Amino acid sequence: MGIFNFSQDLGVDLGTANTLVFIKGKGVVLREPSVVAKNLETGQVEAVGGSARNMIGRTPGNISVIRPMKDGVIADYDTTAVMMKYFIKKAMRKRSLMARKPNVMICVPSGITMVEERAVIDASKQAGAKDAFPIAEPFAAAIGCGLPVWEPTGSMIVDIGGGTTEVAVISLGGIVTSRSIRTAGDNMDDAIINYIRKHYNLMIGERSAESIKMDIGRAGEITQDEEMDIRGRDLLSGLPKTITIQTSEIVKALKETVDSIISAVKDTLEQTPPELAADIMDRGIVLSGGGALLTNLDQVISNETQMPVFVAENPLDSVALGTGKSLDYIQHFRTHPNVSTRSTTD
Ligand code: ADP
Ligand code: MG
Fold first, then answer.
1. Whose Cα sits closest to atom 18 in ligand 1?
2. Is-contact 107 12, C-beta < 8 A?
3. Best probe residue, ligand 1, of 213, 215, 254, 287 (max atoms within 8 Å of C-beta)
4. Which residues have a beta carbon within 5 Å of ligand 2, which is an ion?
5. How far, in Å, are 118, 234, 249 from residue 211 at the CA level?
6. Residue of the nearest CA to atom 8 in ligand 1?
7. Is 166 touching ligand 1 by the criterion CB < 6 Å?
8. Measuring CA to CA, how many Å separate 179 from each of 5, 68, 217, 338?
9. Hey, how many other C-beta atoms are within 10 angstroms of the C-beta on 64?
């Protein structure tokens, strides 16, 4: 490699909710919402990332705010490529490292199709990557959480993002069993919106729903009721209105989503070979992704599975850290491109 040994290769977590960029030797240098604001008349991109997210629900008619990733995969190819290009440039310009095109290690959901995976690789190249290496999201998350993925021991990771929940059991550098469901944080927000509309005839926006979830959302039983004031639009009068809701109501609203996540974990455990299940019983299940931050979710999963459950130290960063750390193993991904991405998911 000679003088090119200094590396500026990137790890990218292209998530439904957030995109993170990791630079080798620097760590995570960029965290931005996966959001793009476009002018519908001119087709021009008005804002990308955090500034575009601030426009959600607040745009005039000629501006549209797009989340180009849906359920973990690319829903709007061109917008995704533009967004990635912007983020990669921003991450690299900060370090003035634009000397050569970077190789990119990029996460993809474990349940992805070949066509969907190809789109991620092509979008990465269009965004400026020399070459792009897909890595299964739960595998990256496990590496990011410091789990011993290369060893002959079972590790279980549950990554709960905006669009997908990925559950996987990993041993010897590969995914042994996994499940990818299209139920995650976004569904919790939708459930809150629907609950409040149904019970109070009040329409609230997705940003408000998300803050309710973060502030008083909770999985499982209610221990003590807190309350929160919520503002929205009264569907009967059409006017702004404030109501007060209790934690218990939000717990009820979130139950279905939480139950789906628990089922995915249980189903995966049922398909896990006994030796590996025994390892997981010893070492516990690790939760990553922003959804892992839902209050009490770890406890509920632990009760339901009778396994120890831990939340990753920085759940929002786990996948990005894992894509970054796995840059050291880029040869492995080059020679065994399918080892860590393809799995037995339905
Ligand atoms: P993705 O990988 O799909 O981009 P992330 O791992 O970045 O998703 O997680 C984003 C999701 O995590 C969002 O649905 C967000 O609302 C949720 N989230 C973030 N913080 C919290 C919290 N404190 N409590 C509950 N959910 C949270
Ligand atoms: Mg993610």
1. 290
2. yes
3. 213
4. 15, 161, 319
5. 35, 19, 15
6. 161
7. no
8. 38, 23, 25, 17
9. 13
* Closest ligand relative to 137 C-alpha: 2
**pLDDT tens, N- to C-terminus, the chain (346 residues):** 333 434 579 999 999 999 999 998 899 999 999 999 999 999 899 999 999 999 888 888 899 999 999 988 999 999 999 999 999 999 987 555 556 789 999 999 887 899 999 999 999 999 999 999 999 999 999 999 999 999 999 999 999 999 999 999 999 999 999 999 999 999 999 999 999 999 999 999 999 999 999 999 999 987 778 889 999 999 999 999 999 999 999 999 999 999 999 999 999 999 999 999 999 999 999 999 999 999 999 999 999 999 999 999 999 999 999 999 999 877 666 655 444 444 433 3
Tell me which amino acid residue 74 is.
I
pTM over 0.90: yes
